[in-house]
Model the fold of this input.
Amino acid sequence: MINRVDHIGIAVSSLEESIPLFEKLLGTRLNKREVVDSQKVEAAFFKVGGGTIELLAPTSHDSQIQKFIKKKKEGVHHIALNVSSIEQEMKRLEKNGFEFVSKTPIIGANNKKIVFLHPKSTNGVLVEICEDT
Ligand code: ZN
Done:
């Protein structure tokens, strides 16, 4: 079951430049920063109401975020949906013809289990499914 929109991921080149911009935009201070080795990114989190805006900057030239910025420039990268059981949700989505970027969930930011749906099966939108652990 999908519980809520968990966060929106935004690809940025530099957290140093984008954090002050988003602090000004949202009228709030940065919640925290975290290096996520599994995705070769450093993330910065802003709490907005019940959701989160997550800035993602590459930590390596072969990071997916770096590739995204090179191809599409900075901007919205993915939306993440919080689910109660990632395995159950993957089964449901697979049954409905959706494709995944990887077959098994990995541990992402905030120690969540995450998996991405392939944008070619979701109208070009990169969708992350995440489960709190
Ligand atoms: Zn995410």
Q: What stands out?
A: Strands lie at 2-11, 32-36, 41-48, 51-58, 75-83, 106-107, 113-117, 127-131. The helical segments are 15-26, 64-72, 86-95.
